[in-house]
Amino acid sequence: MVTVYDVTPNKLIKRVAEKLKGMGIPAPKFIGTVKSGAHRQRLPQQKDFWYIRLAAILRNAYIRGTVGVERLRVHFGGRKVRGVKPEEKRKAGGSIIRKGLQALEAAGLMVKKKKGREISPAGKKLLDSAAKEVF
């Protein structure tokens, strides 16, 4: 049986993003107007940034188990370019991640626990079926 671990992450995330877009999960109004974190210089250039981020959050929850906003902020963070000064690591913005987790929870793909959130059986099924299609 093909699982998430057997396929390339980029191809899987792209396929899951297409499926999430087809599910009709609405994107927040601020998505096209804000950066994804303090380490970025520009707005996201991808047309389907919201759905790609949701798919990446879902994959991350599948692989790591329980995830929370802070853990995902570290994961999606990066290096901040500061001119002639040395680069520093910065966390990603929390609002996009928090709204993404809430949207996935409302769609039934994530389940809220006492600390953090876990992927639901429906979310695992979605990822495994997408992995099978990609493979």
Q: Can you tell me about this structure?
A:
The chain is of the alpha+beta class and 135 residues long. It has one domain (4-134): Orthogonal Bundle (Arc Repressor Mutant, subunit A). It has helices at 9-23, 49-64, 69-76, 94-106, 121-134; strands spanning 78-82, 85-90, 110-112, 117-119. The strands form two sheets. A two-stranded antiparallel sheet has the order 1-2. Strands 3-4 form a two-stranded antiparallel sheet. α3 packs across α4 (94-106). It is globular. The N and C termini lie close together (11 Å).
CATH architecture: Orthogonal Bundle
**Mean pLDDT across residues:** 90
- Radius of gyration based on Cα positions: 15 Å
Number of DSSP helices? 5
CATH topology: Arc Repressor Mutant, subunit A
Strand order of the largest sheet: 1-2
Order of helices and strands: HHHEEHEEH
Notable traits:
single chain; 135 residues; alpha+beta; Arc Repressor Mutant, subunit A; two-stranded antiparallel sheet; two-stranded antiparallel ribbon; 5 helices; 49% helix
Topology:
Elements: H1 9-23, H2 49-64, H3 69-76, E1 78-82, E2 85-90, H4 94-106, E3 110-112, E4 117-119, H5 121-134
Helix pairs in contact: 1-2, 1-5, 2-4, 3-4
Summarize this structure briefly.
This protein is of the alpha+beta class and 135 residues long. It has helices spanning 9-23, 49-64, 69-76, 94-106, 121-134, and strands at residues 78-82, 85-90, 110-112, 117-119. The strands form two sheets. It has a two-stranded antiparallel ribbon.
